[in-house]
Amino acid sequence: MAAERCWVVIPAAGVGQRFGGDFPKQYTKLRGRSLLDHCLATFLSWPTTYKIVVALSASDRQFLESDFATHPKIVKVEGGAERVNSVLNALAYIDLQADDGDWVMVHDAARPMLQTRDIDVLWRARSQYRAAILARPISDTIKRSNRAGVIDRTVSREGLWGAQTPQMAKVEDLCSALRAGLQAGHNITDEASALEAQGLEVGLVEGPAYNIKVTLPDDLHLANLWLERQ
Ligand SMILES: Nc1ccn([C@@H]2O[C@H](COP(=O)(O)OP(=O)(O)OP(=O)(O)O)[C@@H](O)[C@H]2O)c(=O)n1
Ligand SMILES: C[C@](O)(CO)[C@H](O)COP(=O)(O)O
Question: pTM for the complete prediction?
Fold first, then answer.
């Protein structure tokens, strides 16, 4: 039986509005390397990566400075208006090349701390689930606010997880789920939500606390603190 292939999609066409700054946050340096390049380096060092499809803004000129701008395993596609559109554009490329049964992992360029050992944990879950994601059980007490920014009520955290990435599925499943979700007008903020909407079982695989998404400036400080402990 041929070795199972895993494609990788890195959505990296965002503007980083919440992060601020003069350029898109995926090009912010963390220990001298851009957030995006941290992700690319990790997946390039994972032996099962088949190809990496990076979705970039049409106006992106900074990827040319990436350490991996001309890497043979990396393909560039144009991103879209929302993250889901960027992912779907990358999948459209993969769909033309994928063999039946190929897997794909989608990982945010804004999550630079992922390690190959974390990818291995998710990859091993394919024996148990047809789709799975890294996620973290919620440990804080959860509050829902009212319009005045006051606690409206406490929400049980029982069974609540914070979704991370990578999110893994069969190429054909993810392509059809995202297309169906968009067609139905769903607000798709991660791959799992589209798969769930199609009735697919998506496994939850515990991811590391350090696999944070750099969304706000403070998140970059947190990432640096984690790296100091490595
Ligand atoms: N149209 C978009 C929007 C987002 N992303 C990517 O999706 C990932 C997660 O999105 P997020 O953290 O929200 O990044 P931004 O959209 O850039 O942030 P903001 O919402 O603050 O603008 C990022 O790697 C981002 O580059 C993308 O490829 N295409
Ligand atoms: C995909 C994701 O990282 C899972 O938590 C998250 O949904 C991305 O959200 P964003 O607003 O596009 O950063």
Answer: 0.98
